[in-house]
Design the sequence.
């Protein structure tokens, strides 16, 4: 069964860090473009970061210098290291795997940044 499972969300104080994981089963992530998206209440889903199959990474302007995307092909997992978190980073974070017009989504993990 093809599945993406996010984990690692939680409640963190401003300035803190979290590492999100996106683990895949039923597909091999290293042949996909993997993206992290987020959706805050009342807002549209927005792209945060993505990593291509050759390891090239991209970041949204709001997270550049604070977030780092990486992949561990042996574990079939993609990570999003989030540092210097801000209240405006609060959202449900989703991972997406895209290849040849097909898109797969995880169920999301909640990140809340609050004091």
Sequence:
């Amino acid at each position: 069964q093809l599945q993406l499972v996010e984990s690692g969300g939680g409640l963190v104080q401003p300035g803190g860090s979290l590492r999100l994981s996106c683990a895949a089963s039923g597909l091999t992530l290293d042949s996909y473009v993997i993206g992290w998206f987020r959706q805050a209440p009342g807002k549209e889903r927005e792209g945060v970061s993505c990593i291509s199959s050759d390891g090239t990474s991209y970041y949204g302007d709001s997270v550049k210098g604070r977030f780092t995307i990486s992949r561990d092909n042996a574990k079939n997992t993609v990570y999003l290291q989030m540092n210097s978190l801000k209240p405006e980073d609060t959202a449900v974070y989703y991972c997406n795997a895209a290849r040849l017009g097909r898109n797969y989504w995880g169920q999301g993990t909640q990140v809340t940044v609050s004091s």
Remarks:
- The radius of gyration is 13 Å.
- The first strand starts at residue 3 and ends at 7.
